Recover the amino acids of this structure.
């Protein structure tokens, strides 16, 4: 198993463009999480799936953000009409148990820069 | 309002000595507490956790202590090794929760 994979590793986009990130979790893990991390801060929860169902979504996630996990396998996170404030590291994680209690396996992240 | 706080942005210790990383929380409803380690250009790696029914959990060189009355936990690393140099994040969650609330991290430097 190669762990949690995220693609791309880096993305530079112009303000107003749409971007999409992909996450492939560990195959046995049915729970998948998206977090965002800015410089000097800890990861901030965005959303969480159990299989294909999106169970929780942060109030911080504006309508410009959408996440999907079709068929309970890989997940995509789309940001529409990007703003400079969206520049951050986007981390995906997966777990077999409740990640908040048992811990996550994180991917290496996608670094987004909005210019 | 930040519910999980790591008040020391950085810590430097000598190889072989003890490293103590501290974390405070404000939400008494948190039931689980976790520590993650992060190297540059990598995602955080889960280290150790503790539930609120315990006051200590040990795994090799890593021990986490929980003081519920003080809403404080600490991670002890003994003995510290240069490879332990990383950013350490404290996180907290509720029972059966998917999400965790993270602190802003403490950068540990272990000098040879």
């Amino acid at each position: 198993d190669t762990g949690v994979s995220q693609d791309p590793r880096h993305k530079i986009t112009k303000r107003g463009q749409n971007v999409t990130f992909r996450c492939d979790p560990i195959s046995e893990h049915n729970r998948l999480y998206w977090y965002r991390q800015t410089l000097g801060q800890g990861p901030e929860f965005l959303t969480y799936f159990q299989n294909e169902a999106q169970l929780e979504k942060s109030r911080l996630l504006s309508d410009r953000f959408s996440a999907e996990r079709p068929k309970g396998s890989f997940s995509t996170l789309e940001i529409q009409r990007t703003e400079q404030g969206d520049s951050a590291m986007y981390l995906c994680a997966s777990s077999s148990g409740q990640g908040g209690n048992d811990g996550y396996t994180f991917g290496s992240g996608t670094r987004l820069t909005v210019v | 309002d930040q519910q999980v706080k790591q008040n020391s942005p950085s810590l430097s210790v000598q190889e072989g000595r003890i490293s103590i990383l501290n974390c405070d929380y404000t939400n008494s409803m948190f039931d689980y507490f976790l520590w993650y380690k992060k190297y540059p250009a990598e995602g955080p790696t889960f280290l150790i956790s503790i539930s609120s029914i315990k006051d200590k959990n040990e795994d090799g060189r890593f021990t986490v202590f929980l003081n519920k009355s003080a809403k404080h936990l600490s991670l002890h690393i003994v003995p510290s090794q240069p490879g332990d140099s990383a950013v350490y994040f404290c996180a907290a969650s509720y029972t059966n929760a998917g999400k965790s609330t993270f602190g802003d991290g403490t950068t540990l430097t272990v000098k040879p």
Notes: The interface with chain B takes residues 4, 31, 33, 40-45, 48, 50, 55-56, 58, 91, 93, 98-109 of chain A (CB under 8 Å).
